[in-house]
Amino acid sequence: MTGLLQQVLSYLEIDPKHAQGRVHTNGDYFGRGYGIPTNEMIAAIKRCASLEGLMLDPVYTGKAMAGFFDLIERGDIATGSKQLFLHTGGSQGLFAYREIFD
């Protein structure tokens, strides 16, 4: 994971040293597995779409945003702190999951 992070930061022309101790990964929110919806993911996608017009995909960014919201609600992410959420695309994946958003 560190190698990929360093490549991304270099591509963005950000010194990778700035990430040391500031970038954290968490694999607690993928649910039962790849491509399997979670209630939290569905709620996060609906929330972002209705409040911000931000379309998240149901496989990666939807679950990641659900985890992000949970960490905020639990207090693991401090109120008023500066956070960066990278949306990696994939919103076209929503069409394959239409039935869960009815």
General description of the model:
By secondary structure, the protein is mainly α. The chain has one domain. Helices cover 37% and strands 0% of the residues. It has three helices and no strands. α2 (39-52) packs across α3. The N and C termini lie far apart (36 Å). The mean pLDDT is 88.
Give structural attributes.
0% strand, mainly alpha, 102 residues
Number of helices, counting only DSSP H or I runs of 4 residues or more: 3
The computed structural class is mainly alpha
Shape: globular
Number of strands: 0
Order of helices and strands: HHH
* Total domains: 1
Segments where pLDDT lies below 50 for 5+ residues?
none
Taking Cα atoms only, what radius of gyration do you get, to the nearest Å?
Answer: 15 Å
State the share of residues found in helices, binned by percent.
25-40%
Biggest β-sheet description: none
Distance between the termini: 36 Å
| Average of the residue pLDDT scores | 88
Q: Determine the strand fraction and express it as a percent band.
A: under 5%
Quick overview:
This protein is mostly helical.
